[in-house]
Amino acid sequence: MSDIFKDMQSKVGCDYISDLPSYKRKVWHEMKRLNPADYEERQLEDFSKYVFGMSYQTLKDVMKQQKGREEQCRKQGCWWKREEQLAKKQYHTGLNCR
């Protein structure tokens, strides 16, 4: 079995495992592409609580819900709106603000 902590450290590109909670967005993106069968259930649980502060089951439920919304949005042809929303969010979260 692989070590999810070390795998995520290399995928996200942080220097230390202790930095992973600071890279939640990148970790979240990698988690969606992750094959859970490569890791022990206990390790997935520990990782989820360490990085996100929630159980792995809750994390899976949120990912499933998010995936369902994205698929529904694609079917309805509004995927382009999501990109607009993200651009607005980045603008208003201070990434472009002074």
Care to describe what's here?
The chain is mostly helical and 98 residues long. The protein contains 5 helices and no strands. The longest helix has 21 residues. The mean pLDDT is 82.
Oligomer, anyone? single chain
Structural class computed from helices and strand pairing: mainly alpha
Number of strands: 0
Cα radius of gyration in angstroms: 16 Å
H/E order of the elements?
HHHHH
Distance between the termini: 46 Å
Biggest sheet descriptor? none
How much beta, percentage-wise? under 5%
| Mean pLDDT across every amino acid position | 82
Overall 3D shape: globular
Helix fraction? 55-70%
Q: In terms of per-residue confidence, which ranges show pLDDT below 50 for 5 or more consecutive residues?
A: none
